[in-house]
Design a protein that fits this description.
The chain is α/β, with parallel strands linked by helices and about 350 residues long. It is built from 13 helices and 14 strands. Helix 2 packs across helix 10. The chain starts with 5 loop residues before the first strand and ends with a helix.
């Protein structure tokens, strides 16, 4: 057993040994042909995972920074945020604090976003940007991108659509071009199965063109700073080179697994976890029409002593999640993404069973 518990929290997620060892590859210069080759491989791989021809930018900071990249490069009139959990709420706060005309359309925590409510507000014409979180990590609610896409395509084709896919990218099939997502963002510590501190986004041409007409974006968060270096398969600033090696390895693993198998694996693990919870008399915290494929949030109706289970699991080498913020103890989450395969999940839930017995 490793000296460190195996992570069964919904981020950072478990990083497997093969990835960990790749992270210690010797450094290479960030303005060399070697790095351009590496970045080109990664960009092509990510485009493939996202089913897109859009530009893909690699950034060495947390996904939270990409929230602001998204808004700074698109909002002129105002931004409407769908808020259905902790992360979507924080993104709306970041827009308010950036001084944008911001409105939040609120949904019950645990449910997905509802297009009828979004439609009513976008109809006012007050907003040119719509922002949402695809997979609310705080509640395990995954919203339907397809229904939002149909709404925007049919009634609001000029609205710029920003999507946070921090806990779904690389674990759930997201067809960026088909859906028409202008800006999709994620960091690497969830379904990408890499350490935190590195992020990825895809950007549509129309958003890049719009960004050109917006002033005072500064330097670091201006998409055109990224575009300039993207054309050379480089990054504007010195990137986290270990993450680049890790991403290449992960893309090789994804290619070996096959995209369809990967999406299916995440769905199967989600189903397995839901059934496990229900078979123990617990219920699901999340609405049944919004159940995430990458994590399951379980309502602790059986009043299990979560802190005690946490300690016992820790003794056995696993770090469990005890619930996000205000839900601590009342609901807990089981992640099943990235480097977690069915056998890892089965092993974890077997030990969990022993502990609760
Ligand atoms: N969005 C969602 C849905 C998240 O789950 C998280 C982190 O857990 C974030 C954004 C913030 O990501 P980061 O810590 O990389 O800024």
């Amino acid at each position: 057993m490793s000296d460190f518990p195996k992570l069964f929290i919904p981020g950072p997620t478990h990083v497997s040994e093969d990835i960990l060892s790749i992270l210690s590859t010797p450094q290479i210069g960030h303005r060399t042909p070697e790095i351009s080759e590496l970045i080109e491989y990664i960009i092509n791989g990510v485009k493939n995972v996202l089913y897109t021809e859009n530009d893909v930018y690699l950034v060495s900071h947390a996904a939270t920074g990409l929230w602001e990249v998204g808004t700074k490069n698109s909002v002129k009139k105002g931004v409407l945020h769908a808020v259905n959990g902790a992360f979507s709420s924080k993104w709306a706060l970041s827009s308010q604090l950036s001084g944008f005309n911001t409105e939040s359309v609120e949904f019950e925590w645990g449910s997905g976003v509802d297009v009828d409510k979004i439609d009513k507000i976008l109809n006012s014409g007050k907003y040119d940007v719509f922002a949402m979180v695809h997979n609310e990590t705080s509640t395990g609610a995954m919203s339907s991108l397809e229904t939002v896409s149909s709404l925007l395509k049919s009634k609001y084709p000029d609205i710029i659509w920003l999507v946070d896919a921090v806990s779904s990218m690389a674990g759930v099939k997201i067809e960026v071009d088909k859906l028409g997502i202008d800006f999709l963002l994620s960091s690497t510590q969830k379904a990408w199965g890499l350490p935190a501190g590195f992020s990825i986004c895809s950007v549509s041409d129309r958003m890049l063109n719009l960004s050109k007409t917006i002033e005072n974006k500064g330097y670091f968060f201006d998409l055109h700073t990224y575009k300039k270096y993207f054309l050379k398969n480089q990054t504007p600033t010195t990137p986290s080179i270990p993450h680049l090696f890790g991403l290449k390895k992960m893309l090789e693993k994804i290619e070996l697994e096959g995209l369809d198998n990967r999406w299916k694996r995440h769905k199967n693990m989600a189903e397995f976890t839901r059934n496990w919870a229900l078979s123990h008399g617990q219920t699901l915290f999340t609405d049944t029409n919004a159940l995430s494929y990458t994590l399951t949030c379980i309502k602790n109706v059986k009043n299990w002593n979560i802190d005690k289970i946490y300690e016992k699991l820790l003794d056995r080498g696993f770090r469990m999640d005890r619930g996000y913020g205000k839900f601590k103890g009342k609901a807990f989450r089981v992640p099943h993404m990235g480097n977690i395969y069915m056998q890892d999940l089965e092993q974890y839930l077997d030990v969990f069973n022993e502990v609760i017995e």
